[in-house]
Each structure stands twice: as C-alpha cells, then as structure tokens.
Amino acid sequence: MSITASGWSNKTGTVDRSCNCGSWKQHWIKYAAKPWPANCSVKGCSNSPTLGAHVQNPNVDGERIVPICDSCNGLSGTFDLKGEITLPSANKSKTCG
Ligand SMILES: [Zn+2]
Ligand SMILES: [Zn+2]
C-alpha cells in the first residue's frame, strides 16, 4: 500500500463510532496485520499510541485508521505521518462490517 504520508488531518465527530472489532485499535491490528506499534504514527512524535484514530487526506480515497497518541488525536489542521505506517480503511463495508 503506497499512500502519501503528508497532509493528513483528524476526522472529528467519530467518538461514537464503533466497529465489529471491539475497538479501532483492534481494527487496526487486524487489518494492518501488524503488531501495535511502540510509537505514535505522527511524524516527530514518540509517544505511545493509545487509540486507532480516524484520519483523512484529500489525496486518499476514504477514511483511514492510524495508531495515534492522545495528544496527536487532538491536533487540528494537517500533520505528516511516518512513512512506514500502514493505514487500513475505516470503511466497515470493506473490512469488518
Ligand atoms: Zn473493525
Ligand atoms: Zn503522537
């Protein structure tokens, strides 16, 4: 999956969303098929990621889930992600729905 790492933003108003995986963290682990990372996905951030956040990018089709820390989950505006991060779709009809 080669997806741009720049120009992402948090999708707001998603706190009430849930999926069949139990949590968006579990959703990421399942569909990224990787262990939960030690560090937040936002470039330059080395905090531990605590949740799977909904993010969006004007150049990418659909919303994605990324492991992110509480602090970065509150970012407004755009931010860059670390280049190696995997971004499973948040679209339940394509994943766990
Ligand atoms: Zn899910
Ligand atoms: Zn962070």
Q: Any descriptors?
A:
single chain, 97 residues, alpha+beta, 4-stranded antiparallel β-sheet, 4 strands, globular, binds zinc ion
Structure, described:
It contains 2 helices and 4 strands; from the N terminus they run E-H-E-E-H-E. With 97 residues, it is of the alpha+beta class. It has one domain (8-79). A hairpin with a 7-residue loop joins strand 2 (51-56) and strand 3. The longest helix has 9 residues, at 24-32. 25% of the residues are buried. It binds zinc ion (ZN) (2 copies). Residues 19-21, 27, 95-96 line the site of one zinc ion.
TL;DR?
The protein has two helices and four strands, in the order βαββαβ. It is α+β, with helices and mostly antiparallel strands and 97 residues long.
H/E element order: EHEEHE
- Secondary structure class reads alpha+beta
Low-confidence stretches: none
Indicate the mean pLDDT.
94
- The number of helical segments is 2
The number of distinct structural domains comes to: 1
Tell me the major beta sheet.
4 strands, antiparallel
State the helical fraction. 10-25%
Q: Gap between N and C termini, in Å?
A: 21 Å
* Inertia-based shape: globular
Bound molecules: zinc ion
Number of DSSP strands?
4
* Quaternary organization: single chain
- Trace the largest sheet across and list its strands: 3-2-1-4
**Into which percentage range does the β-strand content fall?**
15-25%
Radius of gyration over alpha carbons? Answer: 12 Å
